[in-house]
Amino acid sequence: MRAPDRLPPRPDGADPVTVHVVVETPRGSAHKLAWDPALGAPRLRRVLSAGMHFPCDFGFVPGTRAPDGDPIDALLLLDAPTAPGVVAEARLVGVLMGEQTKGGVTRRNDRLLAVSPLDPRLGRARTLDDVGTHWVDAIARFLADYQHALGREFRVFGGADAEDAARLVDEAARAVRPR
Length: 179
What we know:
Blueprint: E1 18-25, E2 31-36, E3 41-47, E4 57-60, E5 73-77, E6 87-102, E7 105-108, E8 111-115, H1 128-131, H2 133-149, E9 153-160, H3 162-174
Parallel strand pairs: 5-8
Antiparallel strand pairs: 1-4, 1-6, 2-3, 4-5, 6-7, 6-8, 6-9
């Protein structure tokens, strides 16, 4: 069995907006989990402040490296949580373009938004508008509040469509391929 972090970014033969998403932290969790390749399992990274919880499944697209050095972040929008380590075939619906400031250094830190075609409510969504501004705004607020609790600043400065999200996946996949 192949470890989830060793999967390619996309299933074989998939269209550009279809990606693998490895879930680290499920929706509703007050615990930040992160995949630990050495363990081959998620590791508890932190406990959120009282009253805070993840508004959607949070994970990454395997086989990628974002500008922050980690695999590119992906938020999987479902009606109910999955579980840590689950690999979902997901359709990108857009990206929240963001920047994070830590220790006076500001870096780009985008978050891909994706849906599972298997989800009865959101499975047909293809755009951020299809997902709904209420949910997209709630995710942006959570990201800012989460980083603020860690002494960092996170600011969403825009959104982009699924094709732009797919281009970010392509760029992040090229960053891990040997030259």
